């Protein structure tokens, strides 16, 4: 079994099979950070702050099992292609975002989807034909009174026929379709859909000991079977531990090299 790169495993004894990484990619200013902010805090900032790379962690207890979801919010400016490749290699589920009124951002999503498939095909037992990475593509900012620069047929072409890929028109700002999008992503990835923001009870980090309980006895919580905690001060695992993780995921060092799995 592959050992995931998390510190918190020891703290909470989370099995590697329940640890996953969600990576969000897309051009700058399309709304990636806003989507993650919706996911974690159920609100978005109006003010724009460019992201370099942000790492978050959410812990869940769902029907008695504990899960860890690491979230990598990437930069749309991607000044370091090797970092992008690393985030693709370590990601388990992906959100690709474009803005419905920005054609270039859609073309970037087309390139990113291709890059994910090419990059993942160097992992164990994978070829470009059988890569089965869960991907949700988001056309964001649907609240805007916009001139639509991306046509539905083009989106259909990008998404259609791929059972591991889905498309949603969303608004992070107005919270339109965001929960449905996350539910679909988790369902494609065969993860509990209770991980999406509207499907579990949010509890504070002070209550983290409840991760060990089978259910939460809390009057404020309607659903005693699923709750989630945003881990404060989550630290991104080191690049070295990411690389070790990838090395194990790929077929040893030598075969990975043969297949072109190089991180620079
Ligand atoms: N109208 C509208 N504005 C949005 C929406 N989502 C995000 N924005 C705004 O778009 C701007 C960019 O949002 P961010 O979430 O920071 O974009 P980003 O993709 O993370 O950008 P980088 O970090 O530079 O890659 C901000 O001013 C947001 O308030 C949306 O759904 N509708
Ligand atoms: Mg950002």
TrEMBL record:
Task: Keywords in alphabetical order, please.
Answer: Cell membrane, GTP-binding, Lipoprotein, Membrane, Methylation, Nucleotide-binding, Prenylation
Provide the GO MF annotations for this entry: G-protein beta-subunit binding; GTP binding; GTPase activity
List the subcellular locations: Cell membrane
- The protein in question is named Small monomeric GTPase
* SMART domains on file: RAB, RAN, RAS, RHO
Where does the source fall among the domains of life?
Answer: Eukaryota
Q: Which family does it belong to?
A: Belongs to the small GTPase superfamily. RasD family.
Is ATP-binding among this UniProt entry's keywords? no
The principal location of this protein is membrane
InterPro entries in alphabetical order: P-loop_NTPase (IPR027417), Small_GTP-bd (IPR005225), Small_GTPase (IPR001806), Small_GTPase_RasD (IPR052236)
A single BP term in Gene Ontology: signal transduction
An annotated GO cellular component of this protein is:
plasma membrane
Q: How does it sit in the bilayer? A: Lipid-anchor
* SUPFAM superfamilies tied to this protein: P-loop containing nucleoside triphosphate hydrolases (SSF52540)
Q: Which Gene3D superfamilies match?
A: P-loop containing nucleotide triphosphate hydrolases
